[in-house]
Design goal:
heterodimer, A: 87% helix, rod-shaped, B: mainly alpha, 73% helix, globular
Chain lengths: 90, 192
């Protein structure tokens, strides 16, 4: 006699879990998309500043400093790249 | 050389960073739910059934985003990491320590995830003891994110780190305070 309400409760709990799983995936994808957009926008705005710096500071002596500024602005790792370029040139 | 360095970063690099943050948030949720289960925390509106189901499901989602994080970093044309750089701790010469901690966290998470398949062989109790290694995965991942993250200096990254760390820290503290009581009886799971 008491099995029917218990079964209904279980069904409700399962349905709730399913809804929560779907919500979690949707939230994860939405967060991923939003963060990608934020990072791209942030890098884009910094890239403009870096490009302006590069055009003004155009002497050979300041090449390294300019490159470092640009790398920092685009948030790409500078440390890895330098040795690889050097080794490919040698 | 200057031309190469001033090129805009590839979208792959954005995906890698975003996937890293989502992975950290998912890891926090998985660990928090695991701690809640250990503490036997439940309410009439939030039965243990929900915590267990979400804990397992979010672990799977976590692996998906971790895979995106690792594959995109590996594929990024700028960094040119090889497979060992992104899978073997402390091999990469780029921020070796911070990268290594993240890779170590991933390797541990992967091993624990796969251990579910040998649980019947090693026994539930041994598997559960091995599961305690999860306690170091979250701190490793958090330190990896803060140390190697290109966005650590931004306000939103700090918010994400806080959102991830505070609930896990609070539950871990609760677990330490009432730890042994929560640990005592390990219920054998019925074979599925």
């Amino acid at each position: 006699m008491n099995n029917a309400p218990r079964s209904n409760k279980m069904q409700d709990a399962k349905a709730r879990l399913t809804r929560m799983k779907i919500s979690a995936v949707v939230a994860s994808i939405a967060t991923f998309g939003s963060l990608t957009a934020v990072i791209a926008g942030q890098v884009g705005s910094q890239g403009v500043t870096a490009a302006a710096t590069t055009s003004v500071d155009d002497s050979a002596a300041s090449t390294d400093a300019t490159s470092t500024t640009t790398q920092a602005a685009t948030s790409q790792p500078a440390v890895t790249v330098a040795p690889r370029i050097v080794s490919s040139q040698s | 050389m200057i031309l190469a360095l001033t090129q805009a970063p590839s979208p792959v690099w954005y995906f890698a960073r975003a996937a890293g943050f989502v992975s950290l948030l998912l890891l926090a949720a998985v660990v928090a739910l695991g701690l809640a289960l250990t503490l036997r925390w439940r309410t009439p509106n939030w039965p243990t059934f929900l915590s267990e189901g979400l804990h397992r499901y979010l672990t799977t989602v976590l692996y998906v985003f971790l895979a995106i994080h690792i594959v995109t970093i590996w594929l990024d044309p700028f960094t040119k990491f090889n497979l060992a750089d992104v899978l073997v701790p402390f091999v990469s010469n780029y921020r070796s320590l911070w990268m290594g901690l993240g890779i170590l966290a991933f390797d541990l998470a992967l091993a624990l995830g796969l251990s579910i398949y040998i649980r019947n062989r090693i026994g539930y109790r041994a598997w559960r003891v091995a599961h305690y290694a999860t306690n170091v995965i979250f701190p490793l991942a958090l330190i990896h994110g803060i140390g190697t993250g290109s966005d650590t200096h931004t306000w939103w990254a700090l918010v994400i780190y806080g959102v991830a760390a505070v609930p896990v820290g609070a539950l871990a503290a609760a677990r330490m305070v009432g730890g042994q009581a929560a640990l005592a009886p390990v219920r054998e799971q019925p074979a599925s």
